[in-house]
Amino acid sequence: MSSTGPQALPRPARVERRTTHALPWALDPDVRAGWLSAVTRGNAGVFLDYDGTLTPIADRPEHATLSASNRTRLSRLAASCPVTIVTGRDVAVVRGFVQLDEVGYAGCHGLDIEGPVGSGLRYEAAETVLSTLDDAETDLRHGLSGVPGALVERKRYSVSTHYRLVDAGETAVVEKVVAAVARRYSALRRERGKKVFELRPDVAWDKGSAVAWLVDALSLDTGAAVYIGDDETDEHAFELLCGSGVPIVVEHGDRPTGARYRVRDPGEVNDVLDLLIETLAGC
Length: 283
Fold this sequence. Notes:
Layout: E1 18-19, H1 29-39, E2 45-48, H2 68-78, E3 83-86, H3 91-98, E4 104-107, E5 112-114, E6 122-124, H4 130-143, E7 151-155, E8 158-162, H5 171-184, E9 188-193, E10 196-201, H6 207-217, E11 225-229, H7 235-241, E12 246-250, E13 256-257, E14 261-263, H8 266-281
Parallel strand pairs: 2-3, 2-11, 3-4, 11-12, 12-14
Antiparallel strand pairs: 1-13, 4-5, 5-6, 7-8, 8-10, 9-10
Helix pairs in contact: 2-8, 4-5, 6-7
């Protein structure tokens, strides 16, 4: 399916956020009965962030490898419903980690969508900005060359600057350089993640847009759609599913979120996936 395929579905104009500690724990027996029932009432689909959700956060991006047990989980789940990894990483990179042809990948925060092998599902949202990203990457690498621990990671549709390994006294320098580059290229916008700054195309498209597009393209029911993620960039998808669907935030601490349920860490994500596998296999 080409870029002229289905359009993104409209999202709620306003979403009331609660803090994560105020949300029901998704694995509570009474709570899980409710959302599992919702998943079985329509055409279900499961959307998953990668870093911090399927794998623990790693100090270096290339170290966030997927465990063999989780690869098996994803394969079993994909036998019962569409499964898509929705990530800030490039499609090629996360596909290399996951190593499964039967799941879909929405990389670069949903700007680059590839369905399972053989599905024909394909969408790219910002091809015209690729040369601008090339220039921004060059400027970032030059500007941060003297900051120990600063890592510039180029993805197809974004440039990430990781500062997890930067000395605390130098993080302001990193932010200043990234901000200066962002001002230089009006076609890009700056966003913040966990110990990372990202420059990405300034287009009206995000992880929530990608999920909405996929729900339409795959003929899923929003009420039976599950989205699990841990980062601020996942909030766009939580907003999409807040009134109908199963948005689950992965967070041990307390922060505002548009999700409806919570788990504390990737280990509990595995428990959610096991419940989904068991429930959907019986449908």
